[in-house]
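The material for today's practical consists of a large collection of protein records. Backbone structure tokens are a discrete shorthand for how the chain folds in space. An example says more than a description, so a record of this kind follows:
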Amino acid sequence: MIRLIVSFGALSRLPVLPGRREPRPDQVTLWTSCLALAFPGAAPSVSGLQQTGAQLEGLRRLRNRVAHNENLLGVDTVARLNGSLALLRTINDDLPEIVMRDSQLRAICRQDPRVAERDGTDHIKHQPSS
């Protein structure tokens, strides 16, 4: 068995390069031949490649904003959390529950002072910025 350690930044660019709508043929080959195995809950097709790539890129962008101490007030924290959990679910159905088991993140999101209204779910609607 060959094991390869890849940085998150590199991993997020394997499915689809930022700024491109469609994956290149070599990215499709990489996805169908091996990368899709790391995300068994994702569709093994090009649509699964694109969706997983978009999720990874969104997470990479947020990580970079945090690392660079950028303003995060415009970030929809609930959408980002749900997107991250959806990505974890493509790796293993049990991961979202394991990650959130002792987490207080949802309670913290509900206390967000920017919240205008709640729609009865975990989705929080923010007031538009002025």
User: Anything to note?
Assistant: The longest helix spans residues 46-67. DSSP finds six helices and two strands in the chain. The two ends are 55 Å apart (CA to CA). The CA atoms of residues 35 and 84 lie 18 Å apart.
